Amino acid sequence: QVQLSESGGGLVQAGDSLRVSCAASVRPFSSYAMGWFRQAPGKEREFVAAISWDGGSTYYADSVKGRFSISKDNAKNTLYLQMNSLKPEDTAVYYCAAKRTLVFYRTTMIKVDYYDYWGQGTQVTVSS
Fold first, then answer.
1. Helix and strand tally (H, E) in the chain?
2. CB environment 77-88: b (16+ within 10 A), e (fewer)
3. pLDDT per residue as tens digits for the range 89-117
4. The 3-state secondary structure of 34-75, one letter per residue
5. Which of 113, 116, 95 is nearest to 49 (CA)?
6. Which of 10, 11, 91, 119 fits a disulfide with 4 by CB distance 3.0 to 4.6 angstroms?
């Protein structure tokens, strides 16, 4: 059974940093492109960042570019999202998602319905 399990969320202050992780049971993990999405109360799930199967390509939403960094450790079957200079508007449930593909097209990586598997999410709350 495929599982994606996020961890590392929490309550932080504006300007702080936080790293969330996603442990994946998909195999082989190295064949999957991955994405991070987030959903705030009353809003639709939105794209945050994506990374190719080998970690060689990344893409970010404009709202997080320069502050967030996505990375993938294929040896540990784990996806990361390093979040710096956090803002109150970053408050949301953060989800990781997996797509088995060796191609990386930005126009598809940003779409919620493109992915094969989803985690349950981890709450990130940024106080002002």
1. 1, 11
2. bbbbbebeebee
3. 999 999 999 999 999 999 999 999 999 99
4. EEEEEECCCCCCEEEEEECCCCCCEEECCCCCCCEEEEEECC
5. 95
6. 119
